[in-house]
């Protein structure tokens, strides 16, 4: 049965869809470095003059610049609960986007390769925490009838970000001087700034409010998300369902190790299946940050 959207749920779709901007930022940042590190002005800034009289960077420097972002996102994702649970889903996204912008700013103004790498690490940390907070916010705010489709919007936005980064890299080839690499990187501050400012105007997750015992705020948040009055039966029904779910979660004393215990609901199988899909996605090389280097080496 195809999912349907109530006209009054359009506001929820808009709120949740806006948060997908984080996915776009993820895709753009992941891909833009591929072209930036091959720009002559970038190599002149951070590289060395080789025997042929051309500016270049070593393979170890190239690996560092590309891979350190992933290291940052790894630790950012691990610590995302500190932001999402400690500050709230909405404020967590705001703070992590600020961390992301700080890292980007350091990259733009970096005097050397070491500072640039540190900027990439900070950017990665903020990015990893941000993109971990966003699906939580989306899933807790989206109408359950279309929740899956809306949460997957972040993945679509990531793909769009990858494409836009490729266009930006192509455009950078026509720019001379340090602006050629500074602009593609600096523009990410604008993207994250829009997300940061926009999140101030979005409601907090009602499930987060319930978790913190702020039930009246939760009811108001549901009312705003669904564009219905607080006394509307559907709002009250959804609110009561969230309260019951939160109460059940409080009684469940499961730990992280339970994720890898099979049990009656085949938890381990489901976890490993999900990890398998994510792992094989990366192994396909669909996000190939060294493509530009390879193309340059073969003269394309």
From TrEMBL:
InterPro entries: MFS_dom, MFS_sugar_transport-like, MFS_Sugar_Transporters, MFS_trans_sf, Sugar/inositol_transpt, Sugar_transporter_CS. SUPFAM superfamilies: MFS general substrate transporter. The chain crosses the membrane at residues 12-33, 64-84, 91-110, 116-137, 149-169, 181-202. It holds the Pfam family Sugar_tr. The keyword Lipid biosynthesis does not apply. Its main location: membrane. Keywords: Membrane, Sugar transport, Transmembrane, Transmembrane helix, Transport. It comes from the Eukaryota. GO terms for cellular component: membrane. It is found in: Membrane. The keyword Cytoplasm does not apply. Residues 15-300 form the Major facilitator superfamily (MFS) profile domain. One of its GO terms (molecular function) is carbohydrate:proton symporter activity. It catalyses: myo-inositol(out) + H(+)(out) = myo-inositol(in) + H(+)(in). It is a multi-pass membrane protein. Belongs to the major facilitator superfamily. Sugar transporter (TC 2.A.1.1) family. PANTHER family: HEXOSE TRANSPORTER (PTHR48022:SF17), PLASTIDIC GLUCOSE TRANSPORTER 4 (PTHR48022). This is High-affinity glucose transporter SNF3. It comes from Thanatephorus cucumeris (strain AG1-IB / isolate 7/3/14) (Lettuce bottom rot fungus).
């Amino acid at each position: 049965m195809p999912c349907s959207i109530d006209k009054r749920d359009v506001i929820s779709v808009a709120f949740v869809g806006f948060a997908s901007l984080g996915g776009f930022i993820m895709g753009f940042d992941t891909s833009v470095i591929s072209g930036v590190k091959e720009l002559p002005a970038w190599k002149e800034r951070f590289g060395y003059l080789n025997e042929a009289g051309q500016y270049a960077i070593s393979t170890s420097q190239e690996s560092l610049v590309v891979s350190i972002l992933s290291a940052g996102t790894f630790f950012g994702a691990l610590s995302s609960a500190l932001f999402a649970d400690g500050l709230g889903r909405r404020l967590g996204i705001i703070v992590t986007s600020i961390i992301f912008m700080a890292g980007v700013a350091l990259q733009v103004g970096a005097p050397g390769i070491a500072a640039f790498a540190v900027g990439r690490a900070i950017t990665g940390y903020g990015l990893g925490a941000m993109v971990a907070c966003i699906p939580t916010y989306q899933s807790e705010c989206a109408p359950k009838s279309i929740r899956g489709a809306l949460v997957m919007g972040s993945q679509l936005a990531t793909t769009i970000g990858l494409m836009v980064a490729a266009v930006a890299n192509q455009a950078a080839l026509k720019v001379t001087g340090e602006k050629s690499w500074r602009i593609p990187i600096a523009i990410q501050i604008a993207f994250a700034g829009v997300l940061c400012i926009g999140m101030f105007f979005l409601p907090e997750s009602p499930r987060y409010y319930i978790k913190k015992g702020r039930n009246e705020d939760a009811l108001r948040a549901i009312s705003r998300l669904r564009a219905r009055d607080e006394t509307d039966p559907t709002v009250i029904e959804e609110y009561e369902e969230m309260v019951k779910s939160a109460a059940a979660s409080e009684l469940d004393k499961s730990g992280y190790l339970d994720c890898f215990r099979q049990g009656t609901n085949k938890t381990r199988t489901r976890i490993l299946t999900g990890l398998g899909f994510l792992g094989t996605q990366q192994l396909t090389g669909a996000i190939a940050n060294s493509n530009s280097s390879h193309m340059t080496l073969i003269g394309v």
